[in-house]
TrEMBL record:
Entry keyword set: Carbohydrate metabolism, Glycosidase, Hydrolase, Polysaccharide degradation, Secreted, Signal, Xylan degradation
Compartments (UniProt record): Secreted
Taxonomic classification: Eukaryota, Fungi, Dikarya, Basidiomycota, Agaricomycotina
Family: Belongs to the glycosyl hydrolase 10 (cellulase F) family.
Start and end residues of each GH10 domain: 46-353
GO cellular component, one term: extracellular region
Main location: secreted
Catalyzed reactions per annotation: Endohydrolysis of (1->4)-beta-D-xylosidic linkages in xylans
InterPro entries (alphabetical): GH, GH10, GH10_dom
Single annotated GO MF: endo-1,4-beta-xylanase activity
GO BP term, pick one: xylan catabolic process
Protein's organism: Wolfiporia cocos (strain MD-104)
Pathways per UniProt: Glycan degradation; xylan degradation
Main enzyme class: hydrolase
Protein name (Swiss-Prot/TrEMBL): Beta-xylanase
């Protein structure tokens, strides 16, 4: 990571000019409260607070928006990036053995050019899986080879560029049992072992994560994830970290974040907040935006309380490109910046937490 640190310093010194590139509070958002914090940037503050990064997801379809990219591609603001879709299996191996990394490479190049850590997302997931993986009715030997080839080829392609891979995505049901998808149904938990071992062999320096939701708080799914980690450790299967997705609802952020995070830390692994957003029913109200400020504060502060929480990634940084409204009709406004890229009170909540203040 020495060269990355040097790049970060270089990028930080270069990008001071871009700090005030955002539009000011506009007429469209004037009726609602906006953020007022004046800071050099969230990543700057996160690194000052001892974290590796404050980062964001982004998608290739958003990269023609120059107001968006000029803010994002500023290392003071974001020191880490996650491709929201373009490294997933359907994007990278649409046909057996045919790999396309063009879109993923675009995101990887942004990370390289602006001194950002890159999180690889993701290698084995039941969603955004091309039909052939299921339709070919592989037996255990066949599917093991398919998983190994996919993981090996993709991780090798990005070798040396990825800080951490979400090797396994969302393997658990909410009651803590294993999700019954083509991988589990065919291979049992061996698919997890196969993928982690292949990833380690292909890029020994990348951190290997399992990423999931509803494991951010104390409960049976979190306990099941901890048990999975313990089993992998007992079996000498490489596992370095857990991704806490953290797709929350305003006013319902869990109260047991720190206790739960510490339980993962006690296993001797690291973790990260990988997909943070906090949605509300639309239209936004001043009260909900204020509550959202408190909620972002709570999550960021929880990461600061546990040293092996490496960093925080928002699942895109502006409401303009959030996945929420299309998935939860009537809901949205889940990110720290509004549709016009104006800072919301949530931005201030993040800043207060990163600066060690309280709400
Ligand atoms: O690629 C097609 C494109 O060809 C087509 O024209 C377009 C028409 O709608 O659809 C495109 O695919 C969409 C894809 O995003 C790329 O934009 C899918 O319909 C859409 O379902 C997909 O949504 C993504 C979702 O994962 C899929 O489950 C979201 O952008 C992405 O934010 C979301 O991210 C997931 C994480 O990977 C895992 N954790 C949960 C998180 C939120 O669901």
């Amino acid at each position: 990571m020495a060269s990355l640190s040097a790049l970060v310093v270089f990028a930080v010194s270069l990008s001071f000019r871009g700090v005030s590139a955002l539009p000011q509070a506009s007429a469209t958002s004037a009726a609602l409260p906006t953020g007022t914090a004046v800071v050099q940037g969230l990543n700057y503050l996160a690194q000052n607070a001892g974290k590796l990064y404050f980062g964001t997801a982004t998608d290739n379809s958003e990269l023609n928006d120059t107001a968006y990219t000029s803010y994002m591609e500023n290392n003071l603001h974001f020191g880490q990036i996650t491709p929201e879709n373009s490294m997933k299996w359907d994007a990278t191996e649409p046909e057996p053995g045919t790999f396309t990394f063009t879109d993923g490479d675009v995101i990887a190049d942004i990370a390289k050019n602006y001194g950002m850590y890159l999180r690889g997302h993701n290698l084995v997931w039941y969603e955004q899986l091309p039909d052939w993986v299921t339709a070919n009715n592989y037996n255990a030997t066949g599917l093991a080879a398919v998983v190994e080839t996919h993981v090996t080829t993709e991780v090798a392609h990005y070798k040396g560029q990825v800080y951490a891979w979400d090797v396994i995505n969302e393997p658990l049901n909410d009651n803590g049992t294993f999700r019954e998808d083509v991988f589990y149904d065919t291979l049992g938990t061996d698919y997890i072992t196969i993928a982690l071992q292949a990833a380690r062999a292909a890029d020994p320096n990348a951190k290997l994560y399992i990423n999931d939701y509803n494991i951010e708080y104390v409960g049976e799914k979190s306990t099941a994830m901890q048990n999975l980690v313990k089993q992998l450790q007992a079996d000498n299967v490489p596992i370095d970290g857990i991704g806490m997705e953290s797709h929350f609802i305003v006013g319902e952020v869990p109260t047991t974040l720190v206790e739960n995070f510490q339980a993962f830390a006690d296993l001797g692994i690291e973790f990260a907040i990988t997909e943070l957003d906090i949605r509300m029913e639309l239209p936004e109200t001043a009260a909900n935006l204020d509550q959202q400020k408190t909620d972002f504060y709570t999550v960021v502060n929880a990461c600061l309380q546990v040293s092996v929480c490496r960093g925080i990634t928002v699942w895109d940084w502006t409401d303009k490109y959030s996945w929420v409204p299309s998935t939860f009709p009537g809901w949205g406004a889940a990110t720290p910046f509004d549709d016009n890229l104006v800072e919301k009170p949530a931005f201030d909540g993040i800043v207060i937490a990163l600066e060690g203040g309280s709400i």
